[in-house]
Design brief:
About 55% of the residues lie in helices and about 5% in strands. By secondary structure, it is mainly alpha-helical. It has a two-stranded antiparallel ribbon. The chain starts with a helix and ends in a 5-residue tail after the last helix. The mean pLDDT is about 95.
Length: about 140
């Protein structure tokens, strides 16, 4: 980490109350969700939705729970959709992947999130249709 980045981390910790991990994640990702690219500094809502995600879930990979390579800045939506998904392939070593394939792991998580969002999208559209029918197309709701 460059000296200027170290100073920014220190300021975020002391002036704003960020954890070191969150400050480093904000700097590394330039304030964007590493999964969907949302600018988490664009407005208060984005800022409030900023979370640290564990690329390899801490429920399965406790050893890497605080490893900076395993921490990813994510918006609340992407973090919630990804949940505890394991994105390592069979026979892949967590240590090696975090050291050598971090960007590839993030790409895998992006694909997983996109797939799950597609499933949610179908449910959301159907729920919207049903509720709109109830509210706007019937007099006796």
């Amino acid at each position: 980490m460059k000296n200027t980045e170290k100073k920014v981390v220190q300021r975020l910790e002391t002036e704003v109350g960020f954890s070191r991990e969150l400050a480093v994640a904000f700097i590394r990702s330039k304030g964007r969700c590493e999964y969907c690219g949302a600018d988490l500094l664009m407005n208060r809502q984005g800022y409030a939705s900023a979370e640290l995600d564990h690329l390899l879930p801490k429920s399965t990979y406790r050893r890497y729970a605080s490893d900076p390579r395993n921490l990813v800045l994510a918006c609340r939506t992407c973090n919630g959709v990804k949940r505890d998904a394991v994105i390592l392939g069979e026979g892949e070593n967590a240590e090696d992947c975090l050291a050598e394939k971090r960007e590839e792991l993030i790409g895998r998580a992006r694909k997983l999130i996109a797939r799950r969002m597609g499933e949610y999208d179908k449910d959301w559209r159907r729920a919207t249709e049903i509720l709109h029918d109830c509210w706007w197309r019937t007099e006796d709701w």
